[in-house]
Amino acid sequence: MSPFDIVAIILVLIGTFFGIVATIGVIRLPDLYTRAHATSKNDTLGIVLTLTGVALVFGTGVTTAKTVLLAIFVFITNPTAAHAITRAAYDQNIVPWTADTEVKTEGDD
């Protein structure tokens, strides 16, 4: 196993970790704004790290160039999309969650 393979495995594992953290954030966080933050930060970092690891495995060539371009595209568009979604929610007067906001559960009627 070459050093590039070891670094690629580490990058993919770290990227997978950030992807799992983003998924947990979407499930556990209380409102749209905090969920968008979790997905835009963690998901972007996870995807970029994973694609960097994949690019290391591919070596040099057209496939690596496409993978790097895909990582750059995700790095630019994912936070931009999250910002647009939260801005649209703000424009629709969706109130952010605060400590004073009561969180309803299934048993509360």
From TrEMBL:
This is Multisubunit Na+/H+ antiporter, MnhG subunit. It comes from the Archaea. The chain crosses the membrane at residues 6-27, 48-76. InterPro entries: PhaG_MnhG_YufB. GO terms for molecular function: sodium:proton antiporter activity. Coiled coil: none annotated. Keywords: Membrane, Transmembrane, Transmembrane helix.
